[in-house]
């Protein structure tokens, strides 16, 4: 069988090949590929019957649940583009995404109905192309309530997702999409302004899923822990890649109770753990657990933030035989690089080599390619690069630019990076985060790395703040580990940094905090720090 070209084919072909293979395991249920493909067919028919057409956008709101997983493929089978957003998203942002995407249908977990009903009510009052609202989730009573409230608001085709599926044909609707059509829009966090919707074609997503499963050496025998939200690029691809190869996804709602997750890893014989550093930090704090057999774990992968020595130590404690893959990427291209497990100790601080089928380099201010260890803007080339941002031509022109060949687009990332003599990539900072102080340029990440070496520093963030004399001053926000509160003053911190950094890099201001603002995936939000 040839390689799939459309996202819908990931699930479809696996279901044809192995309909009885278990696709998703939940704490109290499991679902086969055949059953999920049938549901996706029925949902696609339901969406078509409610006016969804080729190229339309469908917003899916919810956390890790089988209905959300089915909806992703149901939308794709209807030749539409899916946009998955977090179940805890507030009404203002839901309204913005529905309006900005011009969504023709909305599938939403009834558990978050207060927020999404408010968003839909506002949208309806000002006019929108929304033609169907389908409520889903684990609680039948909540779904019934959401449908009733939606109908009271006059929302078009408001009904339960299960009812829409039940009244639809089993066969998929005729498909007309091709691989250059839009498959998904993934909205960025909006930490530097209103959210931007990165457009991804079927070709983008097919290539990215092939590349990552290739480097991770995935096979249908893998059992993947689905603890990262499906609304997050990283979590979404775990389901897409599992469906493509026929792997089993062990789905979890979150990582709030890491001891329970580890117990499930042992019980389900999980082989792959895609996580983020905040999860690994929680693993490092676990104590007094009963002995667990975690020997099935073959690999752990990480993205979203820098991996620190304490994170590697925690993973080696719990999964001593597992390979650890530290990866770096952006929403606009899924993945850029991976650090082979053999290089973790040899290349500390590196985010690695290009993923299969990808090239990257760094350029200077005039667009010239820079040599080894010179710092510039990272440029990425490959079939995974987004064609642009939805309805944002200026941002598209800034970041997606013509490449070496006339027909291609390369991603200019806005990230300051360097590449060493062996081709290994090092992330330094976002270009718009570089602090210009005393006539010098300071990369916040370099100061943060020094702070992380101070005993007792649990978390930190460095930004630039206005200064009448310096133009901009370096400011550090520090969270101390338990038992270290009161042991350091701001001067103690700056004196220690003065032993590690050049004088102009030492923060003028140090502020101690109990916690730092973060995204749902644990990435520090510097916009909230001043």
* Total beta strands: 27
**What value does the average pLDDT take?**
92
Largest pleated sheet: 5 strands, parallel
* Adjacency order of strands in the biggest sheet: 4-3-5-6-7
Poorly predicted tracts of residues: none
Which term fits the overall shape?
A: globular
What fraction of residues sit in β-strands? 25-35%
Structural class category: alpha/beta
Task: Determine the N-to-C terminus distance.
Answer: 55 Å
Helicity range: 25-40%
What is the structure about, briefly put?
With 530 residues, the chain is α/β, with parallel strands linked by helices. The strands form seven sheets. Strands 4-3-5-6-7 form a five-stranded parallel β-sheet, with helices on both faces. Strands 12-13-14-15-16 form a five-stranded mixed β-sheet.
Care to describe what's here?
With 530 residues, this protein is of the alpha/beta class. 31% of the residues lie in helices and 25% in strands. The strands form 7 sheets. The protein has a 5-stranded parallel sheet with strand order 4-3-5-6-7, with helices on both faces. Strands 12-13-14-15-16 form a 5-stranded mixed sheet. Strands 17, 18, 20, 21 and 22 form a 5-stranded antiparallel sheet that branches. The termini are far apart. The mean pLDDT is 92.
């Amino acid at each position: 069988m040839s390689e799939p070209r459309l996202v819908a084919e990931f699930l479809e072909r696996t279901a044809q090949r192995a309909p009885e293979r278990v696709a998703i395991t939940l704490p109290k249920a499991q679902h086969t590929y055949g059953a999920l493909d049938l549901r996706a067919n029925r949902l696609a028919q339901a969406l078509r019957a409610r006016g969804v057409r080729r190229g339309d956008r469908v917003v899916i709101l919810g956390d890790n649940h089988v209905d959300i997983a089915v909806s992703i493929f149901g939308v794709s089978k209807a030749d539409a583009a899916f946009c998955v957003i977090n179940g805890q998203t507030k009404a203002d942002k839901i309204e913005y995404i529905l309006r900005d995407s011009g969504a023709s249908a909305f599938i939403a977990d009834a558990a978050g109905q207060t927020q999404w009903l408010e968003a839909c009510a506002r949208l309806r009052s000002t006019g929108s192309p929304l033609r169907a609202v389908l409520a889903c989730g684990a609680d039948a009573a909540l779904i019934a309530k959401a449908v009733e409230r939606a109908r009271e608001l006059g929302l078009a085709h408001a009904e339960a997702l299960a009812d829409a599926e039940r009244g639809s044909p089993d066969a998929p609707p005729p498909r007309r999409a091709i691989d250059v059509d839009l498959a998904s829009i993934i909205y960025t966090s909006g930490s530097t302004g209103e959210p931007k919707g990165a457009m991804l074609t079927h070709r983008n997503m097919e290539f990215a899923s092939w590349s990552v499963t290739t480097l991770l050496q995935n096979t249908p025998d893998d059992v993947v822990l689905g603890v990262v939200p499906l609304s997050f690029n990283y979590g979404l691809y775990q389901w897409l890649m599992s469906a493509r190869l026929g792997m089993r996804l062990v789905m979890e709602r979150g990582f709030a109770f890491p001891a329970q997750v580890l117990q499930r890893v042992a019980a389900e014989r999980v082989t792959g753990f895609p996580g983020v550093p905040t999860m690994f930090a929680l693993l490092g704090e676990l104590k007094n657990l009963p002995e667990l057999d975690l020997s099935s774990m073959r690999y752990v992968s990480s993205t979203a933030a820098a991996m620190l020595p304490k994170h590697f130590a925690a993973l080696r404690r719990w999964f001593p035989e597992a390979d650890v893959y530290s990866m770096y990427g952006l929403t606009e291209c899924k993945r850029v690089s991976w650090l082979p497990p053999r290089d973790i100790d040899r290349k500390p601080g590196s985010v690695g080599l290009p993923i299969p089928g990808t090239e990257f380099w760094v350029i200077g201010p005039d667009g010239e390619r820079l040599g080894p260890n010179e710092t510039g803007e990272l440029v990425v080339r490959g079939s995974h690069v987004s064609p642009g941002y939805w309805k944002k031509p200026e941002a598209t022109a800034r970041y997606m630019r013509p490449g070496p060949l006339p027909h291609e687009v390369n991603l200019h990332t806005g990230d300051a990076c360097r590449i060493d003599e062996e081709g290994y990539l090092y992330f330094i900072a976002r270009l718009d985060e570089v602090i210009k102080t005393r006539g010098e340029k300071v990369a916040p990440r370099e100061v943060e790395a020094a702070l992380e070496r101070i005993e007792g520093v649990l978390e930190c963030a460095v930004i630039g703040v206005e200064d009448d004399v310096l133009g901009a001053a370096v400011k550090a926000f520090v969270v101390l580990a338990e038992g270290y509160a009161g042991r350091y003053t701001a001067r103690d911190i700056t004196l220690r940094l003065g032993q590690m950094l050049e004088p102009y890099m030492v923060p003028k201001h140090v502020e101690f905090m109990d916690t730092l603002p973060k995204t749902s995936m644990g990435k520090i939000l510097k916009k909230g720090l001043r």
